Amino acid sequence: MNAVIENILTRRSIRAFTPEKVKKAELELMAKAGQYAPSAMNKQTFQITVVQSADIIKRLYTAIPKYMEGLTDYNFYGANTLILISDIKDKEIGQMDCACVAENIFLAGHSLGVGTVWINQFRDTSDCPDVRAALTAAGVPENHRVWTAVAAGYPNETPTKEKTATVKFCE
Ligand SMILES: Cc1cc2nc3c(=O)[nH]c(=O)nc-3n(C[C@H](O)[C@H](O)[C@H](O)COP(=O)(O)O)c2cc1C
Fold first, then answer.
1. Nearest residue CA, atom 26 of ligand 1?
2. Which domains does the chain have, with CATH numbers?
């Protein structure tokens, strides 16, 4: 099978990671893949912020549950790397641009042996004070919302979830 298609078909979200820190060269390639994602009207206003500071990651996973009910044992699955994908706050279409960026990062990561999972809680908490302070420390612009984040690390599980969404052809 074509290697690109095989990479797409075998990618799954990873929620268990080894302690080994993801290599900078691999993160650079993943970020580059994100940079090359499509964006509406080619505005490219999004920012990809790669965080490996254990202190900032902890500040973020400690802050978010203060503002969201029902989050227990919340620590981005113990990932040692968090990739924040942000765009201008009230630019609704930025959310879609950031989703394209995330998928490119997922696929690039998978091709390199780096596991990833979407972390959705930033969308609703980016402006909450403790979260915002940690985002600022990470370098996320003040006028940005983190539309999605990616937890990344070397996989410590091999999920094989089936895919069942409907595909139809009308000829
Ligand atoms: C919009 C969106 C939000 C998601 N939010 C989360 C999340 O907050 N935490 C999480 O563990 N997974 C999250 N996921 C991952 C999905 O649960 C996952 O993609 C789905 O179960 C299919 O599994 P797969 O990625 O292995 O194909 C999210 C995925 C999408 C597309």
1. 12
2. 22-153 (3.40.109.10)
